[in-house]
Write a structure and sequence with these properties.
This protein has 120 residues and is mostly helical. The chain has one domain. It is built from six helices and no strands. α2 packs parallel to α4, α3 packs antiparallel against α4 and α5 runs antiparallel to α6. It starts with a helix and ends in a 14-residue tail after the last helix.
Length: 120
């Protein structure tokens, strides 16, 4: 019943098409989504994470694999300055950014993966 109301599969497909248009960073983000799916995240959670990625990818003007601490801080500052985001949305976007950078640097995101200094 909920799948008919929210249609997470369709949402996720739409977000994946948008993310694919971001070049090499978009490819990393799509691989990140596939990695999260392989860890067993629900389709609803994947849809939520994918929903945050287009805004983050628009703000990211650097290569994810080569991210420096100042680059990540600049994106976090952009998130914090955005008046249209509520506190929980800011928290979610920063968490997705952290996971995305960790995936781009380490190649995986799970509890055993090391945290790169750029996002620690």
């Amino acid at each position: 019943m909920k799948s008919e109301i929210y249609d997470y599969e369709e949402r996720l497909g739409r977000y994946r098409r948008i993310i694919a248009g971001f070049g090499s960073n978009g490819e990393v983000a799509l691989c990140f989504l596939d990695h999260l799916a392989s860890l067993g995240l629900s389709i609803a959670r994947l849809s939520k994470v994918a929903g945050h990625l287009p805004a983050l990818l628009r703000a990211i003007d650097f290569n994810l694999e080569d991210a420096a601490r100042r680059d990540v801080e600049r994106v976090v500052a952009w998130i914090n300055r955005n008046p249209s985001y509520r506190e929980l949305t800011k928290r979610d976007k920063k968490l997705v950014l952290r996971k995305l950078i960790q995936y781009a640097k380490v190649g995986r995101y799970d509890m055993d993966a090391s945290m790169p200094p750029e996002v620690s």
